[in-house]
UniProtKB/TrEMBL annotation, chains A, B:
Keywords: DNA-binding, Transcription, Transcription regulation. The keyword Transmembrane does not apply. Pfam families: HxlR (PF01638). This is Helix-turn-helix transcriptional regulator. InterPro entries: HTH_HxlR (IPR002577), WH-like_DNA-bd_sf (IPR036388), WH_DNA-bd_sf (IPR036390). It comes from the Bacteria. GO terms for molecular function: DNA binding. Residues 7-103 form the HTH hxlR-type domain. Gene3D superfamilies: Winged helix-like DNA-binding domain superfamily/Winged helix DNA-binding domain (1.10.10.10). It comes from Paenactinomyces guangxiensis.
Amino acid sequence: MDHLHLCPKFEAAFELLGKRWTGLIIRVLLTGPKRFKELSEAIPHMSDRMLTERIKELEAAGILTRHVYPETPVRIEYELTEKGKSIEGIMNEVQKWAEKWVE
Amino acid sequence: MDHLHLCPKFEAAFELLGKRWTGLIIRVLLTGPKRFKELSEAIPHMSDRMLTERIKELEAAGILTRHVYPETPVRIEYELTEKGKSIEGIMNEVQKWAEKWVE
């Protein structure tokens, strides 16, 4: 049983996407750019502190970008990058599996 | 922005599958039933204590089953259930995404 050749990349992807709330945050952003408040309201059980942390991680991982609109007050929106949007395939598979198998 | 209707199932699935090492363990088992030692050798960076913990979780979640063969010494094998095998679709999607996007 040789070591799985793709293990580091596969493992890294799973670890990044598997973190609590990450899947949901990405799903909400797949419906379009959102402000912090909109994200927070769409996932009520998640604390703002956690959302702030996940946004930082996803930004560092190149999955979302932050747009600052110099209005008064300043408007900040978060949007998925191409890398982020292409996670949709995984999301759909998880959704299908969850519908069939999760009680 | 209404709350995502499938959020509890989707969230539960993501949380279960996203735990460290779980994705890799399932991928190894997708190649067929394995003994503890075979699983442990296939994923060298994972401790036996962690493997034991993950096996318990996956068994409780109905994703794998444990077969005890009354030989001498006793042989124990772990095998994916139908529920476990159907995770392959998610795995393939994660693999595709990781190959394209993970540095």
